[in-house]
Records
---
Amino acid sequence: MVLDFAINFQGLIIWSIACGLVNSSAYLAYYKALEIGPVSIVSSAVSGWLGVCVLISVIFFGESTTLAQVGCMVLILAGIILLSQTTNKGEIIGSALGWSILAMVILGWVLAALPQLSDSAGIFLPVFILKFFGGIGALVILRTTKIPITLPHGRSIWLIIVLVGSIDSAGFIFFAMGVIFLPVVVVAPIVAAHPMATVILAYMIFRERLRTIQWVGVMVTLSAVITLSALYG
């Protein structure tokens, strides 16, 4: 079943707002998982959004995959799993994993819909609406569930928040730009390899020591990304 996603301006606004409100749930679930679980496990689980995104794109939006592409996706997921291997043992991750899976499913749905919105209205407007109403949705959820909102203190913390928010929005914009030139089934796995960048930056900036298995994960993920890119080079 392939959906016809040709929409008018009113439909664009409605879908963008819906994606923004739903996306806020994904972010809250993601940060809740980070609060109670190890970063490596949470990051790896959430990165599984690529499978959800590709599946939705194939079933509803007429995308197609080749055996080589599927193989690269599997290798990327395997590399992400290897990257998540840390020395932390015996941590209770059940609840964190549940929140991570919720974030994974929602994020996969949003990123599958975003290219369709960008096709109708360009790159920036859907992302702007998505992010704006994502913030409103998060506030509504927090107020409704009576979760306390604690504002950070210090200018440096606010600068970091602004920087992270700007980079996050830029990521959505670049994703929307990427799917202009390549299919979602190619762009999504490459974007989902972000744990590799996280691990490498942690090594370079914070001098975190990586285990051998994590270096193997870096090589597997990088090789799969390069191969997937070369298929459309």
Note: The chain has one domain: 9-230.
---
Amino acid sequence: MKLVHFLMKLRNEQVTVELKNGTTVWGTLQTVSPQMNATLTDVKLSLPNKSGNCAAAGVFLSGGQHNAEQKTTALQYINIRGNTIRQIILPDALNLDSLLVDERHLQRMRHSGKLADDSGRKRRMDTNGGPAKRARRAL
């Protein structure tokens, strides 16, 4: 499974995104595009200590609330371009086993007969792969 497809399953999870310029973004992941562009809501943006006032001024222009001592800004939402992301830190309580299951691979295996279908079908599969014929009732 590709990393992007895994991240697409993380909808409505609280994540921390670290950018290549040192900025840290914490918020709720809403969408991830195939190019790994991410949209987060209820965001807290922390600027690195080495950044100048120009980065903070950009946050002021975007309508965020800025705290001068901590260089932390609260935003309603943010779009992050995929090639600027260094890492995405996932929550500890996240069940990775259920997210790493590839649904398309399971469907292919079910279709080929290598995996039993758990949909609760009433008919059994015959040995040749087709559905078994019903037995007729005697009157």
Note: The CA atoms of residues 43 and 133 lie 59 Å apart.
---
Amino acid sequence: MLLVLPLIPEPERRFETEFVRPTSGEERKCIVWPDGKTLWCLFSVMVTAGTVAVWETSAAIVTQRYFGWSVWITSLFIGAVFLSSMIGGELVRCLLKRRPSLHELDVTVTGLAMILICSSMLYNYLPSSQGPTRPYEVTYALGSILVMNAANYSRNYSVAMALRSAASVSNEMKDMAVGAQAAFMMTGRSGGALLGMGLAAMPGGANASAGLLTGISGFCLLLLALPKLYSAIRKV
């Protein structure tokens, strides 16, 4: 299969539109710096990838330190949450196929809002003198599933919007966006893993890591209040 792939012609690029800016004489220069709508999509990729990393690393500590779970049970729990996020992503994809009027931005914004709201289920509202109770464990597990589902499909559609937005401008910007989305995603993952584990290991770490999820998703949504940014992304 690998030997045959180079022989397959590249499919038509639906959104490829060369954008040129005239300069002196016959010289033309292509714009390769991402515009505001592409930058927001890339930032959303970083936020959602960071959300996954923050939750994964913090959950490993919270479930063992606060809940007293074994490593084996914690591993099963984290794996089950990731599996549920994959299934949730497929359900969202099927929903979009049935309702083509829905824009990817609507799905992404809904996912970010879900992270913002459902991260409140990850906080420990009990006094520090009181140990974890079964209702708190159930609430944490349910909140984890909702947050990870939202982060998973929001990241997927943020990547799609970023690449389509860049491809509608020029080939150069499209090529730049391919590398940029990978860089933003890796930055979110590495930064999220570092902060998630570092915060969760501190006293009151469950609330600190949950607060980080609330903060980054809220800030990403707040950026959409910039003039004309939301409408510009919807036109992509």
Note: Residues 134-167 form the longest helix (34 residues).
